[in-house]
Please model this.
Amino acid sequence: MRERVVTMPFYPSKRTFVRQICLVAPVVFLAVIFHTIALAQTSSFLMPPAEFQAFDTPNDAGDSISLTWSTSPNDAPDVFYVVYIDKEKDGAFTVEAARIPSNSGYRTGVPEIYGYKKGNSNYHYVQIFPQKVFHSETSERNQTYYFKLAILADSTQIMLSTVASATAKGNWIDTKKINNFVIMVILCAIILHFIVHARRSPNMFLRKIAGLDAVDEALGRATEMGKPVLFVHGLTGMGSISTIAATSILGRIARKIADYDANLKVVNNDPIVMSVSQEVVKESYLEAGRPDAYNPDNVFLVASEQFPYVAAVGGIMTREKPAANFFVGYFYAEALILAETGASTGAIQIAGTDAYTQLPFFITTCDYTLIGEELYAASAYLSREPMLMGTLRAQDVGKGVLIIILILGTILASFGLEFITSLFVAV
Model:
């Protein structure tokens, strides 16, 4: 027979019960005290700042109003500042214009025009767009808006009695960009000076670009060998600046081809680029006085897709073996395929692109490569047009001045003098 175990419910004794109450009561008492202190601190903490101001946002189109108020040492992520807006000074102020955590929206070094003294460390700054707040499609000119600031924590909100007001007005001049305007005027003066100088001295010195000096050599070689010259555009359309530069270079090459009575073939993958290229080549032959030598069939569309285009151009290189290949424009993955195929035929190859990812392939496989801005300078370099030459020379001078300023500014900043930096920064 199994023994039966009977469990009796446990009832604490009176002494144990009293002991438990004595242990729990102080904890409850302390919790109540701390909660009371916290509520007292919260109520005393919710003190709106004394310096609440509104003003028209400077240097804008007149669609915003700026608000500033002093910071509080008790700013915290769970405490919020709420800005209310109204069109009447005695309005209800029920429309909420902005709500930010009290530990955000800081700015340092308040200008005196904002109403604070210089040296004030931090302050809160908020930009209000009344048109967006009131969902108005048209801006109300000379409308004065009124603002109230409230501080909110949990369900407790205290609103500042001060009412700040401002009227949004547009500005004719953005004073923060005066430095940009001055720099633009100086650069324009330099450009105009060198354009006048280029007209007076057509042989004005330009830095030598080996790839462009080799154009005459490549065309002369093709003429002597009786082989065609192949001009390959990049894959971008006429909206690309590199394609525009390429067509400009094509015009200079076509002019020399017409003088040498050589054969020029221009392959395209875009119908618009093809049409522009046909007109450019035709105009070049007309300028050379040989319009009858122009053959529109030599400027043709090969394919509209990338690799069919590459295969077709590679086939032309292999079959006709041109004496000179020009790869000018913006290229992608087809760059190495084209250049390698051309190199295998023994042609002189000159490439020019602003696609920095393809430059290593052209530098490796071509005889000469125009790097980056040299592509844009090619038109002025080949044509010796005074307007283009003056602009190009002015750009070089401007870059030289900026390099000098960068070096000088770096040296001065190393010694704690940063006044040059302020000339190029919008405050």
The first strand starts at residue 52 and ends at 56. The two ends are 98 Å apart (CA to CA).
